[in-house]
């Protein structure tokens, strides 16, 4: 019976979110083959909400639904509020966190999260039934100062002129601060989300550079589970199951090409540190291209942005549904043994 109504929910989200393909974009692996920055292109952020627009959006969509709550969990270095959006409040239900934009120049994943939040604000019967089976926590744009390029250092060497930056205002990479917790953004995340809620799963959304490829084809994204030896086998297995759910959902759409991320084992990064410290399953999901960077190869032309936003929506929606109906527990993780490792054409950083 539960799976029957969850199929109805799935249909709703496909209609609301997944079947709408941005206009003017080519089909068939358009994300992976989308245009790179070529040195002559004007870098724009037309699809991205600035901080004030994001705050207004979150206040509006959460105010129209009794299933969504908007909380302030702390402030950034430059004093911007950091937000948590909660959906579902049953402590007996499994809980997943969607974390976006630890790096300020990795912005399309936040747009995907905002679209999913909007879909969850409809108050439809299907959405209410989803809330009866899963709790979802959104931490959108953990690094608002980097996203606004409101930082305490110079950005004159950035390709787009300093539209956004990877680090926070202090020049610290937040995804290297999950052990020491020296920054207000990471402390807010840990103290007011990770330590406050009983979490089962977390997807840490990022963007990587544009040069990663499989067999000569650029990827649209990459994934990896926790690889630190302190993470228990049960947590790793849950992480791999989460990855299988996301991979299948993206593959089913036919325009994505997902590779295996070549990541490290340090607990300073969320993928490893959160799984080790808190004992919940984590997945790193990297999208292709950033909105600004000091290296040209990292910046992706804006024509691919619509697909990248959609890819994030697909991942979040599939994860919520699979956790809600329990099908995630049946996910076959052997696919990881065959998932090709992406290889860079040139050098780049990630995670």
Automatic annotation (TrEMBL):
InterPro entries: Peptidase_M14. Gene3D superfamilies: Zn peptidases (3.40.630.10). Pfam families: Peptidase_M14 (PF00246). SMART domains: Zn_pept (SM00631). The keyword Hydrolase applies. The active site is at 286 (proton donor/acceptor). Coiled coil: none annotated. Belongs to the peptidase M14 family. This is BH3831 protein. It comes from Halalkalibacterium halodurans (strain ATCC BAA-125 / DSM 18197 / FERM 7344 / JCM 9153 / C-125).
